Every structure is written in structure tokens, then in C-alpha cells.
Amino acid sequence: MKLRHMSTTAMTLAIAMLTGPAWADMDAAKAFLDTEIGPLSTLSRADQEAEMQWFVDAAKPFAGMDIKVVSETITTHEYESKVLADAFTKITGIKITHDLIGEGDVVEKLQTQMQSGENIYDAYINDSDLIGTHWRYQQARNLTDWMAGEGADVTNPGLDLNDFIGLKFTTGPDGKVYQLPDQQFANLYWFRYDWFNNPEFQAEFKAKYGYDLGVPVNWAAYEDIAEFFTGKTIDGQEVYGNMDYGKKDPSLGWRYTDAWMSMAGMGDVGEPNGLPVDEWGIRVNEQSQPVGSCVTRGGSTNDAAAVYAVTKAIEWLNKYSPPSAAGMTFGEAGPVPAQGAIAQQMFWYTAFTADMVKPGIPVMNEDGTPKWRMAPSPHGAYWQNGQKVGYQDAGSWTLMKSTPVDRAKAAWLYAQFITSKTVDVKKSHVGLTFIRESTIQDKSFTDRAPQLGGLVEFYRSPARVQWSPTGTNVPDYPKLAQLWWQNIGDAMSGAKTPQEALDALCAEQEKVMERIERSGVQGDIGPKMNEPQDAQVWLDAPGAPVAKLADERGTPETISYDELLKSWQ
Backbone phi, then psi, for 116, in 5-degree steps? Predict the structure, then answer.
């Protein structure tokens, strides 16, 4: 066989035939269904086999290829990398290397590929927070056109886009889908249900504060509960009433954009994101062009609600959290509540649920039920009805235009395999990061709900639409996100006051947007900055930005967890 005269694709196939495993392997698919999936699928066994047969047939032209994809390191992606990538390789003959790196590193690799045009990875699972970036730069394949055109032959007829609960998060203002959700999790309030229901603590709290100990509806109640529990000795250890993190690290910025600021009440009303001002404080015009970030341009990144948000976070971190928390990152702080000394956490990611329900840990009962529950996060003094009340992360498949077509097709097959109806229920039981409505409603999760502390109830409730990722106001997520952690870090360390840090942040955001505007690279959907005006002009106008309230505490309010669950039904 004279390989030197063959095309690259033909040569790849020939080498695979000579040296590699057979492709089109339904035996491998059936073994995978037997040993890994079992009854955990919304499809019947016959429909599972039919879906696997489609993957086997569609993958034939790409057998023997080596494909590289990347995601951040969370439980769901670890399962994909260690189990599902290997299964896909055996079933299709397409060798998948699924790298796991830090979330900041994923964004950096994606940014490098955008800037250089070099194909670093064949596909990325990156947050839908980049939807404004992908829509404006047009360097990611728009999947709506891809599935109907170039990628039609490798698009699963059973994909069922309408089953994906986060599709609106990955859709641009042009109505096109730019990313396919792979995992999704929310930031919710987490608390020790057993302690909150302790009659002794309930009586003591009522006597001290004059209202019932329960799930805090607002920040005033959260603050009282944090004070109440901090310093107590429970089960032989000192307890803290708050958990957070404060290290100057990329994850520090995410805590505020994702979406501490909106919980405080910064930005405008609107779902899934405030308009015209979002939770980054960026204002857009009617054409979705960013026009400002500072109050003087109609933005709210440095308004009173934003300053209040950062001020309270620092105060609670210092007063009510373990001393080590100030030096922690997101990843380091995440496991701490499971260690048993935290009474509540305002802002806890449900991605940690899988690690929080392991048998034998301090926050689990012997019967397999948790000692904790999750609930909606309380809102701050500036919040008003109609604003988002929290964040959902939608890690989503993104195909860059700089990736060659054949490699993008092979990667797209893998993306669909690990989000397929055949696979999704089992994957969701491992990682507990739901993406499909059919999976959420599956009987296996009805059965498991009592062990998951409210997760299933939340995702089955109509309330979940009030939690959403970063929207389309942000024109360049990689460039702007790094400004947040650097400036918030200055406030955390005491190098600047919250007001000084946010003044610097909004000014730097505007400089980036001005550079994009001058470059013209985003065309008529890129930034078109407002002329600065006296801040009072904007503060007197309806909506965001807002002036400082005379009373930033308000009246504390709580609700019983059981009453809350009824409101979700």
C-alpha cells in the first residue's frame, strides 16, 4: 500500500485498518449499555441501541482520528474524561483525549485560539457566559447553521434540542444557537437543616432577634443567622455562620459576576438577564451594543448597589467565616461546608452536590439523607422583583471556526454522545448537573430526591428560570473577566475601598470596550460608547444605576424550608 500517494483522510483510515481497533463496533456499544448505562436512561433498550448504531455509522469516515477536547475539572467532566471518552473511542474508533484543566485555563486556551487561529483544541466545553463574545466575534461555529448545513451528516436525529433546559443561555440575539449545553448547575443558598430545626437553637434565635430561624429571604436575615452561629460549639467543633473565599485569583471575579451583584440588586430587571443594564453593570442600547459601565455612562459597575455588594461580602468574610477562607480560591472553599463546621453559605454551587452526599461524611445521616438542604439565595437591599436571583453555569460545547471541518465533525459526534438521551440520565446521577428536562423528570430522580437536599425539587420548579448565566451584554468575556478578580482583589486585601476598586474596574472595562469600538472588529453589534455625563443624570433616571439607600439593611425576613418547597410545586 503506497501511503505517500494517499490523501490525509484516506491515510488515516488505512493506518487504522492496519493497526487500530475496528470501528463500527456495536458489540462495544452493547457492552457499554450493559455495564455502564443499565436501566438509567430515558430511552428503551431498543432505542438506546438504535442511537448507538447511528453513532457507529456516522463515525465511520473519521475512524482512527485523534481528537482533543477540553473542559474545566468538575465531577461531571471527570466522568466524561475517564469513562465516556473511552467508551466513545471503543464504539466509534475515534480516539478522544478529553483534557481537564482549570476554568481560567480553558478561557485562556480559547482566547489564544481566537487570537492566533491555531487549532489548539478540536472542541471546548466553555461556559455560556461567553455567548456575547461568540455572537459578536463570529469565531465560533453557529450551531444552528452547522446542524442544517456542513454538520448535518453528523448531527444526531435524536438530539432533541428542545429537551435542553439551558438552550436560551447559548442563543445569541440573532436567534442562532452557538453552544450546546453539556452540564449545568446553579448557585443556591446552603444550610444545616438539622441545626435550623433544633428546638433549642430556634428558641434562642427567636429570643435574641425577635423572628423565626429559617431560610433567609434577605441579606439582613442572613447576617443575623451568620452572627448567631459563629463561635458556637456544636458536635465538639467551633462553628462559623458564613463561608466564602477571598484569594486574588480568577475565581474571585466569578463570584461577583456569577452573580453576587445581581443578588445584591445591581442592574435592571429582566430574565434571563437584566436589560438594559446587566449584572456586570454594562449597559447596552436597543441594538445590543455596549454603551457604558461606569455610572457616568449609564452603567452600574460602580453604583451604590455594587459597592454594597462588595462591602457586605468583605464584612461577612472577615466576621463570620473560618480564618483560612480569606486565602482560599473557589475550588478550595467548595468542599469546606461538607466538613461539618459551616452553618450556612449564601452562594453555594450545586456542582458540589455529588461530593456533599458521600456516605460517612459529617453532613450526612446514617440513613443516606443529608443533614443539609439547598434553597434560593437571599437577596440584598437593592434587589427588586423581576431581577435575577442567582446564577446558573451552563458549560457548553463550542466549535471554533479555526478547527478543520473533519476534526470539528468528529468532535461534534463526541459532544452529542456524552449529552445523548442514552447517556444523560446516568451521567446526571454521577455529576448531578442537569441539562435535559427528560432527565430531570426521570423516575430515578424522583426516587433519589430525598438524598439530594432539594436539588431535584429546585430543577423541577418554575423558579429555576430566575437563575441564569452571564448574558449577551458582555462583548469580550476573556478580556473583561480578568479585570474583575484583579480589582475585587484590591478591595479584599484592603489596598482600596470597595468604591475605589469598583471605580477602577468600571473605568478599565470601558477602556477595553473603547478599544473594541475603535478596532471595528465587532462591526455594528460591538460597543458604541456613550459620552460621559454627570452621574446624577443617570441616577435620577428610571432603573439602574441607583443611588445609595438611606437604609441598606431593611427588615430581616425568613421562611420555613417546608413552606418554601410548597411554593415550588
Answer: -100, -25
User: Can you name the CATH fold of 184-391+472-569?
Assistant: D-Maltodextrin-Binding Protein; domain 2 (3.40.190)
CATH number (3.40.50.740, 3.60.21.10, 3.30.460.10, 3.40.190.10) of 3-178+394-463 reads 3.40.190.10
Nearest-10 crossing angle of helices 45-59, 85-92: 70
pTM attached to this predicted model: 0.90
Which residues, including other chains, have CB under 8 Å from residue 7's CB and lie 6 or more apart? none
Quote the pLDDT of residue 319: 98
Grid cell for residue 205: 434565635
- CA separation for the pair 313, 502 (Å, rounded): 14
Nearest to 77 by CA among 53, 100, 104: 100
Sign of CA dihedral 56, 58, 63, 65: negative
SS3 391: coil
Residue 252, CB half-sphere, CA atoms under 13 Å: how many?
Answer: 26
Considering just the CA atoms, what is the radius of gyration of the chain in Å? Answer: 25
Q: Specify the DSSP element, H or E, that contains 487.
A: helix 477-493
- The whole-number pLDDT of residue 352 equals 86
As a whole number of angstroms, the distance between CA 338 and CA 357 comes to 9
Question: What single-letter amino acid sits at 64?
Answer: G
CA distances from 299 to 193, 327, 506, 510, 545 (A): 39, 31, 8, 10, 6
Mark the ranges of the chain whose per-residue pLDDT is less than 70.
Answer: 1-24, 569
373 Cα distance to chain centroid = 20
What is the DSSP track for 107-147? HHHHHHHHHH---S-SEEEEEGGGHHHHHHH--BPPHHHHH
- Give the separation between CA 229 and CA 243, rounded to whole angstroms: 12
- The confidence score (pLDDT) of residue 568 equals 73
Q: Where in the chain is the domain with CATH 3.40.190.10?
A: 3-178+394-463, 184-391+472-569
The candidate with the shortest Cα–Cα distance to 472, out of 288, 220, 248, is 288
The grid coordinates listed for 67 are 481528537
| Contact assessment for residue 213 and residue 196, using Cβ atoms and an 8 Å cutoff | yes
